[in-house]
Amino acid sequence: MTPVTSRPGSGQRALVTGASGGIGVDLAECYARDGYDLILTARSEEALESVAARLSGSFGVKAAVIANDLGAIGGGKKLADEIAKRGLSVDVLVNNAGFGHAGALTTAPLATSLGMIDLNVRALVELTHIHWDDILKRGRGGVLNVASTAAFQPGPLMAIYYASKAFVLSFSEALWEEARGTGVRVSCLCPGPTASGFRERAGTGNTNITKAAPVMPSMPVAEEGYRGWQRNKRVVVTGTRNRVGAELVRFLPRAAVLRLVRNIQSPRKD
Ligand SMILES: NC(=O)c1ccc[n+]([C@@H]2O[C@H](COP(=O)([O-])OP(=O)(O)OC[C@H]3O[C@@H](n4cnc5c(N)ncnc54)[C@H](OP(=O)(O)O)[C@@H]3O)[C@@H](O)[C@H]2O)c1
User: Fold this and answer.
1) How many CA atoms lie within 13 A of 255 on its CB side?
2) Ligand 1 mutation target, pool 46, 198, 209, most atoms within 8 A of CB
């Protein structure tokens, strides 16, 4: 293990949302490897406790666990109040918690669609708003927001999810500019399909997306995101194929892109 005092994150703390499974666990590990103490949050307390025990044991960092529903209105404020009550501060905010739902607009109950906006957008803005001024004042640390390659175009048959991630990308890029010259780093991580619990919750397992893009393991996705954030890279698209796709989409006619995405999000026939 690298001596604790010489690591880049020594004396700093990262708050990671959605840290009970998937990409969030691996993002938390990336920060822990570099000596950041952690605040891990999600709804599943037991899973968070086991991640905290593993990471603090392996990397010699402190890891606090706060179980909280960020999809509930005011969930961000509740989390921030608990962080303050414990006398902890946040140097890096990793807004990773999110979920999707595949299908035509009304195949999901309205509550599911609004819940997606509440978690993917509302809570992300709420947490960023709460912690932003303190992060700026310190002139270090920053924000790593997790969007998706879905952010680069509208998503027929997964419309709300794509739109929510377009918001995250736009919001993150704007903050990157607002933070320019302050020492604060802002990155937007845009993964393509990644092995995690996402697909099961979203119901994308039987759509053509499983044929269209290879599924990356979550650790390389997290590592690319973390390395990008360290360099204050504005947008980090994981994997060569996803990077090419995100670039290409800007040059194609929008109607063609919409048809293509509709096809990708359609149920598999084979
Ligand atoms: N996997 C992919 O293919 C993929 C691709 C592009 C982008 N992404 C994005 O990557 C991020 C992480 O997703 P993942 O792939 O790691 O999926 P995941 O395995 O389903 O993990 C989602 C995390 O978010 C937490 N979460 C869900 N609802 C929550 C709520 N109401 N309050 C607090 N925490 C909540 C979950 O924990 P609890 O259930 O314990 O609350 C879990 O820790 C998401 O923003 C997702 O949109 C994923």
Assistant:
1) 0
2) 198
pTM for this model (two decimals): 0.97
Q: Which domains does the chain have, with CATH numbers?
A: 12-264 (3.40.50.720)
Residue range 222-268, pLDDT digits in tens? 999 999 999 999 999 999 999 999 999 999 999 999 999 999 999 88
Distance CA 93, CA 96 (A): 9
Is 161 assigned a catalytic role?
yes
The tokens describing 7, both together, are 């690591």
Q: Would the CB of 76 count as within 6 Å of ligand 1?
A: no
Q: Is the CB of 44 under 6 A from ligand 1?
A: yes
**DSSP code per residue over the chain:** ---GGGSTTTT-EEEEESTTSTHHHHHHHHHHHTT-EEEEEES-HHHHHHHHHHHHHHH---EEEEE--TTSTTHHHHHHHHHHHTT---SEEEE-------SSGGGS-HHHHHHHHIIIIIIHHHHHHHHHHHHHHHTS-EEEEE--GGGGS--TTSHHHHHHHHHHHHHHHHHHHHTTTTT-EEEEEE--SBSSSHHHHHT-TTBTHHHHSPPBPHHHHHHHHHHHHHTT-SEEE-SHHHHHHHHHTTTS-HHHHHHHHHHHTSBP--
pLDDT, position 185: 98
